[in-house]
Amino acid sequence: MKSGKWLILITILLIALFGCSSNKNAVTGGNVSYPKWWNTQTEKDYICTYGMATKSSQTMSMDAAKANAMAEAARYVETEVNAMLKNYEEEAGVNNPQVLALTQNVVENISHAKFGGVITGYIETYKDTVKGKTTYTTYIQMKIPKDEVNRNLIENIKNEEALYNQFKASQAFQELERKTGK
What is the CA radius of gyration of the chain? Predict the structure, then answer.
């Protein structure tokens, strides 16, 4: 009799466990697709940056995607400058805290640079309705003229006189000007 009660109890527990474990609303895996033009750099005179956003309003979706693309542009410039400045510091053996602080300041200024001549490349917006709620997902390509990016780099570096003087004396600055065509 006791073993029968245990058997019934174990059966009920197993049914409860298996019954609770199935999730009918589970999200199934799948590929996320992007437009064919996404993350391409085919423009000779432009640096292409990309942004994506999903919002409840089509306009907000487009604005947020554009802001994300421009943030990517600022990160791109900051990464480029960081690499060039790190190369310079290693080459020159810079250990001066003032120069290091100026280097950081230049990088921060450049990452907040304003770009002129920016144009929208491709833009695609998709409307999706789930459980009565509509969202818009926008993919956007922004094109920033390379000359504009290069001008921002050179101007911001030249504005920091102490850093500029050390750069001017080094081959790293000449390399920077050669790469940017200035």
Answer: 27
Answer whether 0.70 is exceeded by the pTM. no
Model confidence at 107: pLDDT above 50: no
Q: Is 153 exposed, middle or buried (0-12, 13-18, 19+ CB in 10 A)?
A: buried
d(CA 27, CA 61): 24
DSSP state of 45: S
Does some domain include residue 17? no
Contact 102, 160 (CB under 8 A): yes
pLDDT digits (tens, 9 = 90+) for 43-92: 889 989 899 999 888 999 999 898 888 888 777 666 655 555 555 555 45
Total domains in the fold of the chain: 1
What's the rounded mean pLDDT across residues 142-160? 76
Q: Residue 83 sits in which domain range?
A: 42-168
108 in a domain, yes or no?
Answer: yes
